[in-house]
Amino acid sequence: MALNQVRDTLTTVYDQDKRRLLSALSHGSIFFSTLLFSIGVPIAILLISDDPVVKDNAREAINFSFNVWFWGGVIGALSFLTLGLLGFFLIPLGFIWHWGFTIWATMSTLNNPNEPFRYSFIFRLL
Asked: Residue 4 has what pLDDT?
């Protein structure tokens, strides 16, 4: 009986459309920069889904959201300390980084749903 359960687990095929949608939704929720929504949606997907690729994408989206908020705080503090001089350059770069990586992650999960997306240059907490 146990051997059949192991075989069933190994041969489980996940729905590609569901995987594509939930992975893209995890990364795309970052477009809505409210903390509750950008982290809440991936947390809900992480708790609800049993697909390992979707779970990896949800974890990565949560980590990226934490990084966006952290680096936004650093840029805000540097802008305040330099009376806006560094902010003049860093704020546009921060937005390009935030939006660019989010678009890249969403498109990558839509085009290749079987592989989890990994953001470059971020600290991973989960």
From this structure: 53
Burial of 103 (0-12, 13-18, 19+ CB in 10 A): middle
Which parts of the chain have pLDDT scores under 70?
1-12, 33-34
pLDDT at position 11 is 47
- The whole-number pLDDT of residue 70 equals 94
106 close to 28: Cβ distance less than 8 angstroms = yes
From 103, 14, 96, select the one nearest 56 (Cα to Cα).
14
Place of tokens 């805000």: 76
Among residues 126, 57, 66, which one has the least CA distance to residue 98?
Answer: 66
State the Cα–Cα distance between residues 63 and 123, nearest whole angstrom.
Answer: 7
In sequence order, what DSSP letters do the residues of 72-95 get, joined into one string?
Answer: HHHHHHHHHHTTTHHHHHHHHHHH
Residue with tokens 């996940």: 14
The Cα–Cα gap between 8 and 79 comes to: 56
Q: Which letter does DSSP use for residue 29 in this model?
A: G
What is the pLDDT, as a whole number, of residue 113? 94
